């Protein structure tokens, strides 16, 4: 039963106030995009064992979407941040790197 | 003229460890806009005579008030029969500013839970720390009560005012009755 | 291998059971196998078993990083049914169900398949339409199912409350030959049979790398050394993403926690399996007497095998209303498993971009019932390069938009 | 015999006698008794039967670890099986029955299994019952199921007579366990100002110490507990809850507290159980330790009990478990029992100590001083007796069990050492380490469960942490309490640990089998798991057969899977398994501990959510009117909508037919309030809606309405509805009932996460309005009678909307039609909804007005070939399948779903397409039927070429009509295809246009 802090309204609340929205920072591919790009955008997911950048909505609260950086192995939450970003902010990356040395965003061998 | 009916037509229940009542028609206006813009602030304050609350707060003056709903949303309270005028005032005040002000008085219901065990009754239903040192007068909290979304604040030390969707009013009333059943005092909040 | 029977037990009883041999050998890996299956869960073991039984391929190793059957095979609610809507699903699940019918005899191991019947409850008009549609489809798919009225539901399951809770019971989709089986026994039975065919079931052996040459697989590196192979089957459920990474391709998968719980055992009270999808409650009674309850999945990626308790609450309150007697029983134990869910919630049984590597994953919450059928089909795919049972389940369906969507309840409307 | 002693019983109120019944016999006990102590006081040693062999069973323990003493209690709505006698407080009128036997507890036919036990070793059922195939379901399984199970099932007809509730509590430090460790830890934590909750599962604080004695800060343990309890109760920042068990520890500091409010006093008002959802920054588990049985032949005979339990019964309840008690042990602690029994005036013929002779510890010296015979290096080879103990055979521990001597006795107190209760530490991932000195697993402080910030959030204090002496326990608890408060952010003052009087103790000696060299006959009578009947020989067989992982062995033998979850058997079984594998215990590892610590009621998990408040029922403003006027309700999401209004003397179907004809011929009213109404406003509103809808919405003129389709990004049709342009910057979007919240969320999601720089605000105004569809030839007349707005064709055209008043109501009227009739949908503020509905019914009286429900709505739209989300769509259908290409803008370069609809399978002309279907004989097609083509597919399934999506009997056309998706359907007009029904009949249907009624669409244009 997770606890998350909504960066929009500042409330720290239990999971039941929130709705999980899957992987964050997906780039939308629309008309004119290649089959591969569209498939990746729609279906391919990092599903990492470890740091996951993901979307949440405070749906039983202020109603805002935000992003969270969370470990899928320990459920540790490194931080939450604005959904209006294309990249995780530096301070979040620094926290993650400090706790998970060698972490690379979306590292995919 | 026909009679206006609030969600529960002022139903009350006093059979348990707290008093539960639906308070009848309450004017409510949802305002969405850039809360940092002067036009948005002034439109709201001048229409209600109440200050813009800080994040997570609600300011009140009788039936009038302003509740902080979100980073770009306020819930404006006013007497039910003044909603139209208030909306006009707000629209005038907003002028050309990009904002949305809409009457939601009938879309919602207002209930009150009062008495020395009001905090405990609420704490059975909402996943929120309602101990006196954590939830104080002036605070405004949007959360869930059992299975529906709700928002509430305290109008005095022993009274909560709850706002929920009109269609869920009966459910919320029934929930509160169960939570306030006789013999269910917890004795946790000191 | 000594056969199991009542006589064998009597014989051993005389000599204080000193003569029982190991159910499966504990070999060290050989240098090379014709095929390696990664994952000694039900699906992996069944794949190996049918490679041997149907195609005579017995130079096979099944490598398992933990203990065989220790993943979702041993953590599910053991429900077996094949009353699916879409043709490809009905085909593979019915194949599976029919193999369960004879599994105990095939494996000479009592997996306690109990075709006690499964009811999918309809509690909204929307579900009524959905299940009547399924009944029509099943009739043409060779899957015996039947739409039954509330009175029949009550006859089959006397502890149900038709009038409540929030949703009255409007009827149900009845599959008389659906049921349950003893989950551990399925893994153990297959492992014993594979071992008996000369296959190596290698436990405590984690794959650390998948070796490729010129786009073709040549072997794997493991914590017990390097092993070569011509063909490789990846059958690791929640961990599929990791293994796919090693092989250099991606999957349309997310891993989430699925929870289940059991009550304390009571005397027989329920002879069928009930699935109430509107209220997310799945209930049956084990032979031990425990009420076995399946819950919902979390919305977030999770590898901890722990879920959030509110899902248990949602399930239990729904079942308390649907089966009022449950309210006075006690929850004995709750647990979680990691399930891998695809973009259309249907599994992937497919070739991969790497020649010789095949993948079987994405069973989500439906894995146990599919074990023998999945193994049968995967074996055919690995041996022959294609199988009518797997054709529709290829990875390419996501790029083509050719989904197999069983969750056709598009949400209530009007 | 077991009986009540003249002295002792610190928990009893001997001035209050309670009468209760066991298997129908009325017995007496005292206030303060547990059911277990009261039964023993009445010499009721036999309390139940084991699970597999139906062996006689008596209590072996005195607390929540008890595996044997399970009974059925209560009647009717208060019946409950599998109640543990050791945790059941006695109350006046308590009714208990023993379980799992037939015909009676004393004479159980099932006990035949015990005679055959040799033929039922671990896993025997995997090896037999294989042939013939049909026998498993019809013969073997029924027999096994009836033999298995424990208590009876509650009756289906009896609803739970009790209520339950939840409670959300937040604190800095939660202490689980109210023994001296828990109390001291709480005191230390509270001293810093932290908010502390102490949860104790029993009704009493103090735990073992008050029974075991000892001197703390110069006072007795009992006085110490009284004093520290008073201190804590006086503190505002401390809450102590007894009868509240820490049931489970979950992620991020979430802990379930299971509080039993009225189990001990059923006459009390209020809920029976309260499930606390506690969120604690730090949790301290001071849950003590559990004594282990010793594995010797006959250790399951009633009367063989844990030494600590026999001590508890004597000291706490003034109950002797036997007149002559032999103590058998591998450690010092059991000597306390011998000494306590002696002090109680009972006979202790001998202490059998498996440890070799050596120096005496204080306790050993005390025992000797009391004249108790101590036999070092000895063990029990076998216990004599069936339904109760009548003696023990003594042997050398080192040997194979040759009997040296037989000692008559009627009770055996055994102690195999102590295992820390590590369950709550482990629930959320805390790891364990093996402690050689105590031969037990203890929490590994370096590998705690991790919280939301990656911090350890559970710590362990006292015996639960592997400490054994008073001093160590108190000191450990104090350090733990101070540390927890500090971690929780309280830097206040730290408490000092009290000092306890030291006593010398001799180290315990791990003894996993007694005697060491016991042969098969003895091993097959040495129980590990009492309830599930798992013996030493069973675990050894599992190892022999290759079930070498602890998980395999557990599942193969069912060790530790009974209702006590192996609290007594886990370590003993693990040791036997490790021994069989010739490997150290830590290498074998341990099984995972799962919540709850002991079983908790399903009722408490459900909490308040039952009956009326099981789930929300959303009501429209006219709900009560519908209810009063014969509404046959249909759940639609959380809403309830009238399916039809059934009048007296008609069936639901007849009502639907009547409503459908009347609406076409006269006037029908539909409560459409549940339809979503979402306001979209801003300079970019048009641009935004162009992305959301497949149609062009930005070109819609103010005052006009347009029907729109919404697709998911994956291309599938998800919602439809009429959009009205209110002003330049404002649109009002109608959604389906199910869509109101989801589509509003869908809009917010795209605005917040993709197009956050667009100037658009949305608001869900669904419930602000009561909306009524006024439908039928008389619709206009009705509104004209109400008056106030010109609703004539010229003044108010089709697909237009207007604000105004009707009969004095403020309305927003839309001239739209989902029925193909002349129709207006009229919205009024919800608070005026009922009054407006009444007004319409009144003016409609002379115009043949009738309310109609959702099924009539379905038929009306089907007669017109209008699609219904959820019928024609199911999440796999795209607008093109439904011939809705006219609603898909060709001009737009992008909209949600556009790219997806360009994929190979979406443009494939093999997709099934929407058509109308007419049965040749006029009957109604079965809903959901599939049409068949030639032959079968590669998997032997009949080839399908289409399916029915909607099918109804149309009273207006007096025939069956249907819509369906058919392969190449639109190109096959007039063709007849076959739909096999599940009734065995084949239904022939002709492919026709889906517009069955008024194809020219003249009716609404008047």
Feature tags:
heterotetramer; A: 109 residues; alpha+beta; Folate-binding fold; 4-stranded antiparallel sheet; two-stranded antiparallel sheet; 6 strands; 17% helix; 28% strand; C: 414 residues; alpha/beta; FAD/NAD(P)-binding domain; D-Amino Acid Oxidase, Chain A, domain 2; 2 domains; 8-stranded mixed sheet; 10 helices; 18 strands; 30% helix; globular; disordered C terminus
What can you see in these coordinates?
- With 190 residues, chain B is of the alpha+beta class.
- Chain B folds into two domains: 12-24 and 108-179, Probable tRNA modification gtpase trme, domain 1 (Gyrase A, domain 2), CATH 3.30.1360; 27-106, Heterotetrameric sarcosine oxidase (Alpha-Beta Plaits, 2-Layer Sandwich), CATH 3.30.70.1520.
- Helices cover 21% and strands 34% of the residues of chain B.
- In chain B, a hairpin with a 2-residue loop joins strand 4 (58-61) and strand 5 (64-70).
- With 414 residues, chain C is α/β, with parallel strands linked by helices.
- Helix content of chain C is 30%, strand content 26%.
- In chain C, helix 2 (42-55) runs parallel beside helix 6.
- Chain D has seven domains: 3-114, 2Fe-2S iron-sulphur cluster binding domain, sarcosine oxidase, alpha subunit, N-terminal domain (Ubiquitin-like (UB roll), Roll); 166-289 and 420-487, 3-Layer(bba) Sandwich (FAD/NAD(P)-binding domain); 293-416, 3-Layer(bba) Sandwich (FAD/NAD(P)-binding domain), CATH 3.50.50; 526-588, Orthogonal Bundle (Arc Repressor Mutant, subunit A); 623-674 and 768-860, Gyrase A, domain 2, CATH 3.30.1360; 676-767, 2-Layer Sandwich (Alpha-Beta Plaits), CATH 3.30.70.1400; 909-992, Elongation Factor Tu (Ef-tu), domain 3, CATH 2.40.30.
- Chain D starts with a strand and ends in a 14-residue tail after the last strand.
- Chain D is built from 26 helices and 52 strands.
